[in-house]
Amino acid sequence: MRRPKTLGLLVAVLLGASVLAACGSGDTVSGGKVKVVFWHGQNDAAKKTIDGLIADFNRTHPNIEVDGNLGGVLADQMTTKVTAALAAGSYPDVAYIFGSDLANIARSPKVLDLTDTVHANGFGWDDFWPAEQQAASVDGRVRGMPALVDDLGIVYNKKLFDAAGIGYPNDSWSWDDFRTAARKLTDAGSGTFGTGWPGAGAEDTVWRLWPMLWQQGGDILNPDHSATAFDSPQGRTALSLVHDMAAVDKSVFVDSDPSSQRMNQLFNDGKMGMLVAGPWALPDIVDAKIDYGVTGLPGFGGNHTTISGADDWVLFDNGSARSKATIEFITWLTDPAQDIRWTQGVDNLPIRRASLKEPGYQDFVKRVAGIQVFVDNLPGARARPAVAAYPKVSAAVGQALVGSLLGQTDPATALHKAAQDGDTALKGP
Amino acid sequence: MSTSLRRRLLGEHPSGWGLVLPASVLILGLNIGPMVWAFLLSLRHDDLLAPSKWVGLANYRRLAEDPVFRAAIGHTLNYTALFVPLSIAIGLGIAMMLNQPVRFAGFYRTCVFVPFVVSAAAEGALFSFVFDPHYGVANAALARVGIGPQGFFQDPRQAMATLVAISLWGGIGLCVVVLLAALQDVPTHLVEAARLDGAGRRAVFRHVTLPAITPVLVFLLVWQTLQALQLFELVYTTTNGGPLRATTVVVFYVYQQAFQQFDAGYGAAVAYVVAVAVFGLAVARLVLRRMRGRAG
Amino acid sequence: MTTMARRRGGRVPTLGRGEGGDDRPKGRSRRRLLPFNPWHLALAPMAVLFALPLVWLGLSSFMSNAEINRFPPALFPSSPHLDGYTYVLRNAEFPVWFGNSCLVAGATVLSNLVLCSLAAYGFARMRFRGAGVVFGLLMATLVVPFQLTMIPTFLLMRQLGLTDSLPALIVPNLVSAFGVFLLRQFFLALPPEFEDAARIDGCTRLGVLIRIVLPLARPALATLAVLTFLTTWNDLTWPLIVISTEHNYTLQLGLTTFTGQHRSQWSAVMAGNVLTTLPVLVAFLVGQRNFVASLTSSGLKG
């Protein structure tokens, strides 16, 4: 059979292109340096900061070459990516993992156990916030190094409060005060809402409910994590309050967008009185020139416990040389001298107490007004339980919350159903 | 070997293998291995992370009692049943309008086609604003004509329809362009002959136009159905499967199980059941057609 | 068939130009109640419905970040801002991503055209043992959701040493079962007489395919090319899994880096979307005359 030249050529070019482009990736850098592949999951200003830190580390550590990459950014995407990478056996040395996913990722035998590292002399594990320590520990072992920490508080628009003739929120507010204020701030005519709540049913919807549970003495799971505990009077009170505010008072903007950034944008546009948010919301609010104030969460019976979401650097085993270098890098990165630069770059909270004494800290607190409130609440903040079934429990509660927010389901029934699904998940297969 | 024997053994044109081999090897190589892998996965309790556990058919048994899975199948069927016929019917309608001697037909066609090139991510960003119940353009427009505000993505009863509407916006363009080309190719002498025989517009359409464009309709039917069954990215960027799982379609459910809830073994079982069902339907249709062909 | 189509060429509106009105066949002009063709009453609102969201996308890309980082966003930018575009274009990697997308989509289209044509012709015209079974298997792969085979495909790419490289984006898409289906359906519809004549003149099967069949199949090839190009260009799930180094990003993957966990550069997202969509749009506008006119010159007919 006569082969046409053009076709053969095409195929040859295609194959050639594939082979050529496949070259040029390797594990070690020339000159005996150990390479550390770092998926930091940061973009924008945070990326610039971390790139600067990586450059400094590489300069001062001639034997190690850290290769920083974005990886994926959004929560689901990073988890998907790391899961796929681990399943295929081609994974980085360290990656940014969301706190709620850590217990699952840590099921992989490739994830390094950092217990000995953090308890070594001079590491200062106790210097990290309690919620971080709690979130990084799975079954009593430390499986991640704190990367980013936040907690929830209230950011409010002073102008809207003045216009409605209500006193600003303060740290003695009860959730009833919060509800009343939200109702008064809501004005359908001008499209103004008292507050907002993410409505996509993902973890961002769910974690805001937990402080309301804890403040009443309730809990998410029972002490040995074998069953859910939220289908309780405390749970029903919390969910009913959300339901009544959203479905009865109509004072809650339900943000169905999966990114749940729209409620922040609404606040930035001066159309929302109070935003339950973390420190991450502040820079955009400053940019939008909203006259705002910050205070802690309202409470039940004087208890104002808040929740802290702590994300982690998770280290993976790519051989002992790389593991050693990676631990060295992450230890360096979480040192107060570097942490303060990281804090300033991402406009988030310092991940350890010692960073508060660093020279840059005071400038930082002045630049981002109100961020001190979030720092002050960190020592008492609680973390979610780090159990592998958490994503399923969260998804079940997410359904109950969305049903309540949209006025589609009765809170008590929905919560009961969520508890059943959660219990099934905790029992495992 | 005699020629006839060789023919019987290898077929009339054994060199046909040479033509189909590269594509077949690539497609099957890239699919059969992974399919076998996924089947084994579906027989395990596996989160892709920890060492997995053989559970036999447990995942499949669990599936039989999973209301969310059943709902997801329903959502996928709903979506397909709405999107496929609507996109082709509306596409045909627009194509027929544009097939008239109308000024600016090229401009109109371009307008309709352009959304087709937009990525699902961009669609998500665009329409989550358009369909916002409080501030969206859609409700503002409805208010103009005296219709009260709708929930769209926040109403479990409307979310799927909203998703279909967005898909139609993005998917009709292809139907229009392809059908318009086919319509313009309907032999004019046939149409004129039918007219001379006294056939009305409807009769001409049924007996001349429709048979002529049937192959194109089949192509569109297959393509749009495949698109509909594999719906994922639009859900991911707009609703995340909600509200209250109203838009959790099968592929999204598979993704959710495997990558959000760390239950990849179960996700594989879900995907397997659906793939086998669709394949079974396709085979059944083929067999039926063959039997009918033989009978007739 | 082709000659007939050519003869009609003068009357069938040639697309892409202001067409219709003037060369309208005289016999069909009706009495006018409106100063324009009544079809416009249906067509114009439809065009608006389809085009308007994109017009807004274009407008919003000229908003300042503060302006668009509000909800609800403004309908019009207060004054044209280039925040988004500067942000995107200042990113040194953006041209690289653009090049990567072009390379991946281009290579995928090319290999699909070649491999699908070969296989489709084999299945359409040649009788060999096992053809039915193999074709059936190929079609069966169409119903497999990619989310199912994603991980093993990743494993496969790793075995081939291709992870985090552009070939990893190309190899799994070198040929599509749908393309084989589409072209086979088209080839089956072509009258075999041309090919028989060429065969008698001594052409090989491949010669017939290249000289006779493929030129006739331009519309189907164009359709396959457009579908393959758009699918590859807009794909996000697979690049997200298999690519890690910024240097190997595609445009769609690069765009995701403008949205953060809590903060997003919305003006950059909008501008990036415009910059990602625009080349495809322009390519279609320029190419549509070929694409559509070639479709009209023989059609996907049976």
What is the architecture of chain B at the second tier of CATH?
Orthogonal Bundle
CATH topology of chain B: MetI-like fold
Provide the residue-averaged pLDDT of chain C: 79
Q: Characterize the biggest β-sheet of chain C.
A: none
Low-confidence stretches of chain B: none
Question: Which geometry of chain B do the CA atoms define?
Answer: flat
Number of domains of chain B: 1
The oligomeric status of these chains comes to heterotrimer
**Separate helix tally of chain C:** 15
- The CATH topology label of the domain at 96-243 in chain C is MetI-like fold
Provide an overview of this structure.
The complex is a heterotrimer of chains A (429), B (296) and C (302). By secondary structure, chain A is α/β, with parallel strands linked by helices. Chain A folds into 2 domains: 34-150 and 309-377, Periplasmic binding protein-like II (D-Maltodextrin-Binding Protein, domain 2); 151-308 and 386-427, D-Maltodextrin-Binding Protein, domain 2 (3-Layer(aba) Sandwich). Chain A has 19 helices and 12 strands. Chain A has helices spanning 5-22, 44-60, 75-88, 102-105, 115-119, 130-136, 158-164, 175-185, 203-206, 210-215, 233-248, 262-268, 282-287, 320-333, 336-346, 361-367, 371-377, 390-405, 411-427, and strands spanning 34-39, 64-69, 94-97, 137-138, 141-142, 145-151, 153-157, 195-198, 252-255, 274-277, 292-295, 308-315. In chain A, helix 2 packs antiparallel against helix 15. Mean pLDDT of chain A is 89; it is low at 1-29. With 296 residues, chain B is mainly α. Chain B has one domain (43-295): Orthogonal Bundle (MetI-like fold), CATH 1.10.3720. In chain B, 72% of the residues lie in helices and 1% in strands. Chain B has helices at residues 3-10, 16-42, 58-64, 67-98, 105-113, 120-130, 137-144, 159-183, 188-196, 201-229, 233-238, 250-260, 264-295; strands spanning 44-45, 53-54. A two-stranded antiparallel sheet of chain B has the order 1-2. In chain B, a hairpin with a 7-residue loop joins strand 1 (44-45) and strand 2. The relative contact order of chain B is 0.13. With 302 residues, chain C is an all-alpha fold. Chain C has helices spanning 2-8, 39-60, 65-68, 83-90, 94-125, 131-140, 146-159, 166-170, 177-189, 193-200, 205-216, 218-234, 237-242, 251-256, 266-298. Chain C starts with a helix and ends with a helix. Mean pLDDT of chain C is 79; it is low at 1-29 and 296-302. Chain C has a domain at 96-243: MetI-like (MetI-like fold), CATH 1.10.3720. In chain C, helix 4 (83-90) crosses helix 15. At the A-B interface, helix 3 and helix 18 of A face helix 11 and helix 12 of B.
